[in-house]
Amino acid sequence: MPEEPSSSDRAGLLCAVFLRLSPDANTNADLFPNALTSDDVSSWVKIDEQIISKTIRATSHEISAIRRRPDFERVVRIEAATHETTILQQQEYLDRSGYIILPADPGKQEKCKATNNSLDLLFGTNIEAQMIGQGSIYMWKASLSRDQVSQAESLDGVKSVQPNLHNLNRRYIAGRYYIDPLDRENQEQCAEIGTSLARLLGNDNFDPHISVLDGKLRKWMADLSNGRVARVKAIHGVKGVRPIQRGRRCRLGMKSTNGLESQAQQEIRYETQLGAPTELPSRHTERRKKSVVTMSLTLGRDWDEDDNLKDFTKLFQYLFDMDVPLVCISGNFEEGFEEPDVDEYPPLMEGPDLPLIVVGSVDSAGKLSEFSKGGPHVTLHAVGDSIECLPRDSKDPVERAGTSYAAPQVAGEIANLLSYEKVPLDTSDGNLVKNLKAYLQSDAASWERYPGIRVLWNGVREENNQKETVKCNGLETDRYIEREEVKHLIEDEFCPEVSSSRDLRPQNSAISRIYNMDTPNKVRLSVSLSQGDSVSDCVKYLMMTVDDCYRVDNDPSDYKGGGQTIIGDATYEVYPGSLRSPSRYGKQAGCDSTYKFTFNEYWVWGHGWASSDHGKALKKEIKGCALLPDTWKFTYGIGEDGREWTARFRTGVFQKSCIGNAVGKTSGIDDFGCAGSG
User: Fold this and answer.
1) Fewer CB atoms inside 10 Å of the end CB: C or N, the chain?
2) In the chain, how long is the greatest CA-to-CA distance?
């Protein structure tokens, strides 16, 4: 029994077919009607020099045949989606990728608009113009097949078509999503989308969002799995699916005029409570003119729907009326953009009547970061590229970059300025925020390290950070110390003593200590300064004297000659005090054993280790090798073979392997063994 034909096979689907006009495509549009069961709905229309289009009614089998034509470009179904067409749309969607289309000359908007019309005719809802300012087009975002990429590139007015790397390999995760219609004003189409959603998700698994302002359906909210996101996006009339940001539900702290809580109050979610910025200054009047709010968040241009823009304008203005400035980011742009200006909220709201302080990012040299949005809305920049951060779940620093790391630096400097006993700007009621913004853009608070890129400056000059002068001893005199030993002395003994005694010492006095007397690691540490020192500065500059004077990469001996560092009126000195064997010998060890029938006698010597403790660590290890009582003798003294000390002792017989292991463990020399008998 033959299968019952589907409704689309019986009546056909209303479609717009696009064919390529190319000598290689063997296009024969005149024969096209012969392939159809139904009559043509319209005549051929020339889209541009290479594309023609025609509206037809065709069955699903006829559409499949049309797709196999060598000149086939694309087909767009015009009728409302049924279950069958939804499946076809899903497959077509999954075969596409995200692209960015750049105009040849964004400065010529008439040409951009003509290009926009051609793209709209070719790709319909799969393309979206991106605009800034007063509706100026600076690029398009599109979901295209490979063939369509070539077609878009061939259009007059298109500079290039690039993969949208920001969304490349994007994977949706299960969660709650907004579903946006293509045309909110077309409520009939919105109702059809709702029917399709009910069929796909079930009536109880999605919620319509009705505007309290006009009673119109605006969007839907639904819990979607990874697979269902793509299926929902393929429904005819759906513009996009976007995740709902997780965070605390926030309140704007205001009511709409009709006494109902606005949808913006119900749905906007952030990591912080939005009422907090206005709550503290309003309750604590002493905090006015001494507070600053920073916001590292941007929202798309469609954010102005449902009175969001109006409500947040009131919120920001309320802050400014309390003389509380607000710092926000200019935003980061996606790869593939060509230096776009600010095009999102809230930085797009900045203006003479709403003096937001908008912050962009530069690198440590003052060069504009590649990701930082610019344009006239940007107030100034701070370093946001790159920033070393310490994650909450790790002790290992990581590097991060973004305008979100630059804005808090500006907010911090504002807090410093407002805390001064004499604030360097007019802070009279109602004038603080505007005057502060002007001050930040002046040479007193920022400067142009690159033309047109004004960077935050905290007023510190070279004379405030005097350059260190380091004088080095070198290793040529054979007076040196082992780094780990002197580091221990500086961090654990000398600098803590310097800090604890600073209030007891006369001004301009010095403190000096000698450590490791009568050993190769004898060293004198000294600090001379006007009035005390912190432990951190003491360690910093003494270790600078140690490390900056002699450094050889991958040098296992790590010997240091010390020297002197002068910074301002402070002097830091590290002076080794013992004449040693030449440093070129590095770390050495020797061991010889003699069998004496009832015991073994050993001679062990070394250089570059056991240089401070008179052999205590070595003796501790050798005790486990049957060390005989009252036989241990350790003396420091230089020898022609490079030795700096010698140890003599006796053990029970057959302990040579044990002694070799003990020497190797104490010295850090691998695969060490003793020579001799026994």
Assistant:
1) N
2) 117
